[in-house]
Design brief:
Order of helices and strands: EEHEEEHEEEEEEHEEEHEEEE
Keywords: Amino-acid biosynthesis, Cytoplasm, Isomerase, Lysine biosynthesis
Number of strands: 18
Strand content: 35-45%
Largest sheet: 18 strands, mixed
Bound molecules: ligand LBFN2T5F
Catalytic activity: (2S,6S)-2,6-diaminopimelate = meso-2,6-diaminopimelate
CATH topology of the largest domain: Diaminopimelate Epimerase, Chain A, domain 1
Pathway: Amino-acid biosynthesis; L-lysine biosynthesis via DAP pathway; DL-2,6-diaminopimelate from LL-2,6-diaminopimelate: step 1/1
Main location: cytoplasm
Protein name: Diaminopimelate epimerase
Shape: globular
Length: about 280
């Protein structure tokens, strides 16, 4: 069939967005990999799928697939693009949109055409909720890798994140440590790996090696996880500006039990159709 899609991005984290309310289609893992393929398909970090709600308290079901075909529980930059897409396509006229993801319910608040605020829900720290193989919850963990001991933070934003603090993010060993930690046996569901340079109490630089997609130009849940880790360690406070290779996000977190609120841009790149 000929599948209609919209290519979008949020701070350079790019998406193929597909409306499966107006189009009837079942996307297989190989279809996702084709859509995401930058040579043989459209090309993106994640494929986002709009589905009808599965329960009355939400407006849509929001499904997220990484470029390697795996399904993810949450995607922050994607959530903002999702909000813009469902309004542009007149699937809703609401400015506050509640969606169900595999990582829980999140609320998308459309400020204007470009900026969307997302209530990402509260982070989770218990090792079994991340999931991380650790006996007890700790402020940071030590992971053994190739004879080295790495200190990192670990938490769930609906999806799993590990965060390493580095002196200079431009020099961070993202290409080697990213894939090695993504598939480290201590993280049984694999993990997204963030490299955070603290600039000041209200500003960080961040690069993220994403599970199932490799290094991306921005990761929304990665930005939330890094700020939560930085606030928990006393390095950051209040509303934090996160500089990523593709743009910047504002992240606010009031502490344990409170939701993380992310604000950032959305952009439509082009529309098209592809035979799958
Ligand atoms: N780009 C995302 C996260 C996408 C999912 C992630 N790779 C995972 O597998 O958990 C974001 O903006 O949060």
């Amino acid at each position: 069939m000929l599948l209609k899609f919209t290519k979008m991005h949020g701070a350079g984290n790019d998406f193929v967005v597909v409306d499966l309310i107006s189009q009837r289609c079942r996307l297989r893992s190989r279809d996702i990999r084709l859509l995401a393929d930058r040579h043989f398909g459209v090309g993106c970090d994640q494929v986002l799928v709009v589905e009808p709600p599965g329960r009355p308290e939400v407006d849509f079901r929001y499904r997220i697939y990484n470029a390697d075909g795996s399904e993810a529980e949450q995607c922050g930059n994607g959530a903002r693009c999702f909000a813009r897409f469902v309004r542009d396509k007149q699937l809703t006229s609401k400015r506050i949109i509640r969606v169900e993801t595999a990582g829980g319910i999140i609320e998308l608040r459309v400020r204007d055409k470009q900026q969307v605020e997302v209530d990402m829900g509260a982070p989770e720290f218990e090792p079994e909720r991340i999931p991380l193989r650790a006996a007890t919850r700790a402020a940071s963990y030590t992971v053994a890798l190739d004879g080295r001991e790495l200190e990192l933070g670990a938490l769930s934003m609906g999806n799993p994140h590990a965060i390493l603090r580095v002196e200079d993010v431009a020099q961070a060993a993202v290409d080697s440590l990213g894939p090695a930690l993504e598939r480290h046996p201590d993280f049984p569901q694999r993990v997204n790996v963030g490299f955070m340079e603290v600039v000041s109490e209200r500003e960080i630089r961040l690069r993220v090696f994403e599970r199932g997609a490799g290094e991306t130009l921005a990761c929304g849940t990665g930005a939330c996880a890094a700020v939560v880790y930085g606030i928990s360690r006393g390095w950051l406070q209040g509303v934090v500006t996160v500089h990523l290779p593709g743009g910047k996000l504002e992240i606010a977190w009031a502490g344990a039990g409170h939701p993380v609120v992310m604000t950032g841009p959305t952009a439509v790149v082009f529309e098209g159709s592809i035979r799958i």
